Amino acid sequence: SQTIHQWPATLVQPVGSPLSLECTVEGTSNPNLYWYRQAAGRGLQLLFYSVGIGQISSEVPQNLSASRPQDRQFILSSKKLLLSDSGFYLCAWRAGARNGYTFGSGTRLTVV
Amino acid sequence: AQTVTQSQPEMSVQEAETVTLSCTYDTSENNYYLFWYKQPPSRQMILVIRQEAYKQQNATENRFSVNFQKAAKSFSLKISDSQLGDTAMYFCAFMKPSGNTPLVFGKGTRLSVIA
């Protein structure tokens, strides 16, 4: 069966520090992968998506970047965090058109 | 570009009652998929129900059902016999069947079930 893993679950980082959030998928190959951010009590903002190794599409200009070094690995990074980067980050993979997306359990990032 | 609109930021319902969450969308596509996702306080996103646009029959999953009106581009979610565990954010979403176009989400409706 397919599963998606996302870590860490919670992260508190000082302003100006780097960030690396990792997402991996098991049980499927060549998945479409997505990073979303959700501010408190708000909707989902698509940040990046990837249709294959090394292929990254950015939806909004910001302080973040994404990479896909392996088929089932998707990484969200920042060189220097801002206070405005705080939020809840969700990774997802496209489980086929009929099944929509399957989401990871999310990372709660607080920048202090 | 497709857009999804949820016009009710917050709703509340008494336990055991029925509630309907609204969703409208805009697309020029004829074939597509629609979804309702639930995000409880744990913030895990859970697929509640899906509808294929080429199917006229409304989808049903236990206490959850949809009213899909293709001509009106409306896709509402009905929750029957509401339970405290239904308290969550609910997101309506649109997906094209092919290609790599990302899922388009509405802004969500926060539902509170009151005992």
- What share of the residues of chain B lie within helices? under 10%
Rounded to an integer in angstroms, the radius of gyration calculated over CA atoms of chain A is 13 Å
Q: What value does the average pLDDT of chain A take?
A: 92
Largest interface: A-B, 25 and 23 residues
Overall residue-averaged pLDDT value of chain B: 94
Would you write up a description of this structure?
Chain A is mainly β. Chain A has no helices and 11 strands. In chain A, the strands form 2 sheets. In chain A, strands 2, 4, 5, 6, 9, 10 and 11 form a 7-stranded mixed β-sheet that branches. In chain A, strands 1-3-8-7 form a 4-stranded antiparallel β-sheet, with no helix packed on it. In chain A, a hairpin with a 5-residue loop joins strand 4 (33-38) and strand 5. The model of chain A has no long low-confidence stretch (mean pLDDT 92). By secondary structure, chain B is mostly beta strands. Chain B is 0% helix and 50% strand. Chain B has no helices and 12 strands. Chain B has strands at residues 3-5, 10-14, 19-21, 24-26, 33-39, 46-52, 60-61, 64-69, 74-79, 88-95, 104-105, 109-114. In chain B, strand 7 and strand 8 form a beta hairpin. Chain B is globular. The termini of chain B are far apart. The mean pLDDT of chain B is 94. Chain A binds chain B through residues 32, 34, 38, 41-44, 46, 49, 51, 59, 88, 90, 92, 94, 97-103, 105-106, 108, and chain B through 33, 35, 37, 43-45, 47, 50, 52, 91, 93, 95-98, 100, 102-103, 105-108, 110.
